[in-house]
Amino acid sequence: MSDADYMQLAIAEAGRALALGEVPVGAVVMKDGVVIATGYNHPIALHDPTAHAEIMALRAAARVLGNYRLPGCELYVTLEPCAMCSGAMMHARLARVVYGASDPKTGVCGSVLDLFAQSSLNHHTEVTGGVLADQCGALLKDFFAARRLAAKQRLVVAATSCDKL
Question: With contact defined as beta carbons under 8 Å apart, do 158 and 150 qualify?
Fold first, then answer.
């Protein structure tokens, strides 16, 4: 299977987040070409700011392997990781991270900064970005467009209700 095939699995996980009303980000951890763990965003439902797709997938992979270190593993995620998730990936000793859409506001694989390029850190993870970027980005754009539309509609309803008073 190719990077695009594995990213399709992460996109399916993002769909699980979307179904719950969460920001649609999904992640898959692979080892030797086998899916060992998956995760999707659900910080809202879990009331947990750390419940990003990547963290959920890393936690599940660590349980499967019985080790907090995940050498030889690759993580596929639909959105460029943030600083928290990237730090966790480095501590897990992932061999490789592959992401879809860039995140110009919080991405640290080159968008805002490149945490993985810091030579002073003791572990270095290979990073590949832009895999199925358009498809991954469309999920997020559509999600946020729908949220903006719903917010506008609530304002119109509220204004109409006030007019009737």
Answer: no
Name the token pair of 110: 């080159």
- One-character DSSP codes across 21-52: TS---EEEEEETTEEEEEEE--HHHHT-TT--
What's the pTM value of the predicted model, to 2 decimals?
Answer: 0.91
Phi, psi angles (nearest 5°) of residue 101: -80, 145
Tell me: the pLDDT tens digits for 45-56? 999 999 999 999
* Rounded distance between C-alpha atoms, residue 53 and residue 43, angstroms: 9
Contacts of 86 (CB under 8 A, 6+ apart): 97, 108, 109, 115, 116
Q: Which residue numbers are catalytic?
A: 54
